[in-house]
Write a structure and sequence with these properties.
The structure is a homodimer of 418-residue chains. Chain A is α/β, with parallel strands linked by helices. Chain A has helices spanning 2-23, 26-42, 44-61, 65-71, 75-90, 129-140, 154-170, 187-192, 208-217, 240-252, 268-284, 293-296, 307-310, 327-337, 350-359, and strands spanning 98-103, 109-116, 119-124, 144-148, 178-180, 201-205, 230-234, 261-267, 288-291, 303-304, 318-324, 342-346, 364-369, 386-388, 396-398, 404-415. The first copy, chain A, is globular, with a radius of gyration of 24 Å.
């Protein structure tokens, strides 16, 4: 009950701050971002000390090496976070942009204007850099932000947010513009998910369990992010050298991220020419291979895939492979198992390329390129708050404009409705 | 359990239909809409007979006159629904529109394209015309639609949807493009709200209770619609004749809709000149008046308002009135009680007009016009599926484009990520 009161107090403060932030000029917001960047660099020792406490706790708790790596801060990573804030400061401010308008026959002028959401809550896991990224992107777009990071990073997040809050306040941004939920009590998330009066949008970032908890329990509007069972389909007509390079890149360049490939689909007529050497290349790179019977027949290292494999986001050096008889069969497989994140075809055939891009229902649909490009920076947005896998509001990489809403300004001279 | 199976079967069929609809050309969709319009007019006798059964049931159940009026169909209303479909057919098709794109430094071409959502579920109350409107707007935008109307209109809805389904099917649209939930069991709504695998977006249309049930229980993304506690603020500098006309229109022209005014705010310095005659005019029009002490002092017919009045959407011939000392006090009142639908200021002062439009957080913010204009047709959209009062995806009147999502088409020649 005290926790609920505490969070509501944070919500009240954030809502009040959001009113002030909506009125801040771009210059004021940018100045604050630059101050925050400088403060992070100046606070390096404090940050590293706090992070060392998290790391020690993490090691004691037996966190995996991958998780510990995500948690770890270094002088270089702190500089990276500060530079991230400077880059956000350099981006154009979407708030106030006029998206169009018209004069109606009765003389009313209507303008559609970009405005901040108000209060955004970010719920995330072990990476402390999300604390800084989210605060920077939300402030730039005039939103107050409530941050709820993972318990593994709580010491780091407390110091990071303290530094950001002080710098933002000293730069003149309203009190409450940034808030960190300091308790690691899981109940806090459940409370946040019902705070419709104080929070306009919730963005979860993390693993499937976190995303599902948020989607299933939130009454506040949610932008679902990040689960990616991504496929690459190698068409009958593909340039097989290109196909091998794209598939290899999509799996191996960074298997732990949502835009990496989980399943390779290969047209039967090219399987014999493509797979033996490509499977060997994956095997040499340390990728565990699980395939359909036709794939298993191509290389001794391939284990049989189960139905579950097609539905699994490995986020690891594991790949499932299926030989299909046609583009249609590939489309059906994708339609059944895709999480609608990123899907690719490798083909030289115009009609197949066009059909694939038109029929596949996903945020990003590629022809002859690696799915790994689905990313706010690679798309040229200059920032990324996450990758939306829902169809409402935003889809695919989300930059600054995806953190805004709109309003209609209607100006008249006494119009009344008949 | 059987109900769940039945609804999931409907979802499977709708999802399948959505894949087909996404591929339909604008010409095919328009032809289907025109066939549906003709079929409604040809089926007039069947529709009127079914509606008579609903009306009889409604009278037996003792529905209010207002509700019975919403439920009633006439030859003229049927013609109106058919004409609505013809108007939607005449509108431009948003699907396939390219919203922008770029060539990245690595040679990747990225295009942002408008696509259908997939499957839209509409949950609504007594008006049978929503059945036709929603089906028309969803099909035009390439979405399959699942309709769940109020039990009062079930007989009308069954016949209407049967006529629409037959006409759409005969015109070549996929089976399952339109589905009506035929049971009046309330459990059906709860099941729909959890059908994330089959439904992309849920749009509730109706009273506060329905909207709240959907927002609180849906795991499918929702577009919240329609609750409107709308204010008109008469500034110190207002043209008082204009102010009186705008306020009268905002309340009296149609009190039962969401864009009508519920609270009038008046600057103290003009209250004495504005209120006595305006209150008399409201009184003569049958409006019950509830005011702050200063308002009560202006006219004998005004009853004292309670705190609850400021937070009530009357949707009726009732108005609350408050005298305020400043624009700031008006903004604070609005911030506290507004449902962020439509808010208006009447003023001759440039700075006050600008401040009001910038600071009020609502879908539509008016200067010197009636809030009654917040409407898809009045905004020139040519259609309206509802009025969004949330900030995610759509805000204010929603036309065809608000029924679409986007996807990114990425075209390369072998690009891989470093």
């Amino acid at each position: 009950m005290d926790l609920q009161k505490e969070l509501i107090a944070m919500g009240v403060l954030a809502k009040q701050a959001a009113r002030g932030l909506a009125k801040c000029s771009t210059t004021e917001k940018n100045q604050a971002l630059l101050s925050m960047a400088a403060a992070l660099e100046a606070g390096q020792e404090r940050i590293l000390a706090a992070n060392a406490r998290d790391m020690m706790q993490g090691e004691t708790k037996g966190l995996s090496a991958a998780l510990l790596d995500r948690l770890r801060l270094t002088p270089e990573r702190i500089r990276g976070m500060a530079d991230g804030l400077r880059q956000v400061a350099a981006l154009p401010d979407p708030v106030g942009e006029c998206l169009g308008g018209m004069r109606r026959p009765n003389g009313l002028d209507i303008q559609k204007i970009r405005v901040p959401f108000g209060v955004v809550a970010m719920i995330y896991e072990a990476r402390p850099n999300v604390t800084v990224d989210a605060a920077g992107l939300c402030l730039k777009t005039g939103n107050a932000v409530i941050l709820r990071g993972g318990s593994e990073a709580i010491e780091s997040n407390k110091v990071l947010s303290d530094i950001l809050i002080c710098a933002a306040g000293a730069a003149g941004l309203p009190t409450g513009s940034i808030g960190l939920v300091e308790t690691t009590d899981r109940e806090a998330v459940n409370i946040l998910l019902k705070m419709n009066r104080y929070i306009d949008v919730i963005i979860p970032r993390g693993g499937a369990g976190l995303i599902q908890t948020v989607v299933e329990n939130s009454t506040v509007p949610v932008i679902e992010t990040g689960i990616g069972i991504c496929h690459t389909y190698v068409d009958e007509s593909a340039d097989l050298t290109m196909a091998a390079d794209i598939a290899f890149n999509a799996k191996v360049s960074r298997p732990g991220v949502c835009n990496s490939m989980e399943t390779l689909l290969v047209h039967r007529s090219v399987a014999g020419r493509l797979l033996p050497s490509l499977l060997e290349r994956f095997y040499q790179a340390g990728v565990e291979l699980r395939g359909c019977p036709a794939t298993v027949a191509c290389h001794t290292v391939v284990k049989p895939a189960t139905e579950e494999d097609w539905a699994t986001e490995y986020l690891d050096f594991i790949l499932s492979i299926k030989v299909v008889d046609s583009l249609t069969e590939a489309l059906e497989h994708i339609d059944r198992f895709s999480t609608k994140h990123s899907e690719a075809i490798v083909t030289q055939d115009y009609a197949n390329a066009r059909r694939f891009q038109q029929e596949v229902d996903a945020a990003a649909v590629y022809v002859n390129a690696s799915t790994r490009f689905t990313d706010g920076f690679e798309f040229g947005f200059g920032a990324e708050i996450g990758i939306s896998t829902q169809k409402l509001h935003a889809r695919g990489p989300m930059g600054l404009v995806e953190l805004t809403s709109i309003k209609y300004l209607v100006s008249g001279n006494g119009q009344i409705r008949q």
